Amino acid sequence: MLLTLLLQAPGGGGMTQFLLLGAMFVVLYFFMIRPQQKRAKEAKILRDSLTKGANIVTIGGLHGKIVDVAENSVVVEVDKGTRLTFDRTAIARQL
User: Fold this and answer.
1) pLDDT (tens place) for every residue of the chain, 95 residues total
2) What is the pTM of this model?
3) Which is nearest to 58 in space by CA: 73, 70, 71, 45?
4) Which residues contact 64 (CB under 8 A, 6 or more apart)?
5) 40, 44, 88, 45: which is closest to 66 by C-alpha?
């Protein structure tokens, strides 16, 4: 009889479900959102600090030297006399 009464009782886990949802958001923030924001901030700093004469690598893996810097693009010399124009966002890293 006691078992029948317990099975009929409503589940009162409202606060527990709320805490579980909050914990999931915290984990999502610290493992996905925060690192992505950090990488985006570092990439913006890199793009803003590009100067003439810097050796760079593009996101496609092309190595070269910056010969001209414009507002939204850079001209990269990949070989003697071979110059390519790239958008600043295409620069992956500076060597």
Assistant:
1) 656 655 565 655 678 888 898 999 999 999 999 999 999 999 999 999 999 999 999 999 999 999 999 999 999 999 999 999 999 999 999 98
2) 0.66
3) 73
4) 55, 56, 58, 76, 77, 78, 84
5) 88
- How many CA atoms lie within 13 Å of 46's alpha carbon, on the beta-carbon side? 19
**DSSP codes of every residue in 11-39:** P--HHHHHHHHHHHHHHHIIIIIHHHHHH
Q: What is the CA radius of gyration of the chain?
A: 27
Count, residues in the chain: 95
Indicate the residue type of 64: G
* C-alpha triplet 54, 58, 62: angle, nearest 5°: 95
